[in-house]
Design the sequence.
C-alpha cells in the first residue's frame, strides 16, 4: 500500500476519480496475489523421493515440492490413528511449536495441510546456514542431499 501511495498522490494533487480507479486496480492485483498464495496444498503437490523414517503415528519422507522444486521432510500421519490414540492435541501443539520456534535444534515448518485420511507437515531439511538440520539428521539418521 505504501508503494501505491508513493506513486499516487491523494486527491487534491490528483483527480478523485483517477485516484479511485487506480486504487481499485491496485487492490484487485493485490487480492489476486494474496489468493494465489492461499492455494490449498495436496499430497499430489509433492513428489516423494525416499522414506527417511517410520514412527508411531506415520512416516517421514524426503520429498520435493513439484512447482518450486524445494526439498523438504514430509511427515504424513494417519488421522484415524491419531484420533484412536487421542493424540490430536499433541499434533496441533507440534505444528504450533514448529511454526514459531527459531532454533537450530528444531526443524522449521514450511507447510501444514490435510486431506480426508491424513495430516501432512512439510519441514525444512537445511537450516538458514545451509547445513543439514541437526534435529532432522538426529531423528532420521539421514543427511539430506542438496
Sequence:
Amino acid at each position: 500500500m505504501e508503494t501505491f501511495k508513493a506513486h499516487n498522490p491523494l486527491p487534491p494533487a490528483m483527480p478523485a476519480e483517477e485516484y479511485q480507479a487506480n486504487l481499485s486496480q491496485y487492490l484487485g492485483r493485490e487480492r489476486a496475489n494474496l489468493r494465489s498464495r492461499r492455494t490449498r496444498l495436496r499430497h499430489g503437490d509433492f513428489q516423494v523421493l525416499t522414506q527417511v523414517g517410520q514412527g508411531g503415528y506415520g512416516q517421514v519422507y524426503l520429498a520435493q515440492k513439484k512447482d518450486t522444486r524445494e526439498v523438504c521432510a514430509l511427515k504424513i500421519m494417519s488421522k484415524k490413528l491419531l484420533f484412536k490414540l487421542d493424540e490430536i492435541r499433541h499434533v496441533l501443539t507440534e505444528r504450533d511449536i514448529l511454526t514459531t520456534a527459531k532454533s537450530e535444534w528444531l526443524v522449521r515448518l514450511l507447510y501444514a495441510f490435510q486431506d480426508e485420511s491424513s495430516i501432512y507437515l512439510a519441514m525444512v531439511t537445511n537450516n538458514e546456514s545451509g547445513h543439514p538440520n541437526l534435529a532432522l539428521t538426529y531423528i532420521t539418521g539421514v543427511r539430506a542431499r542438496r
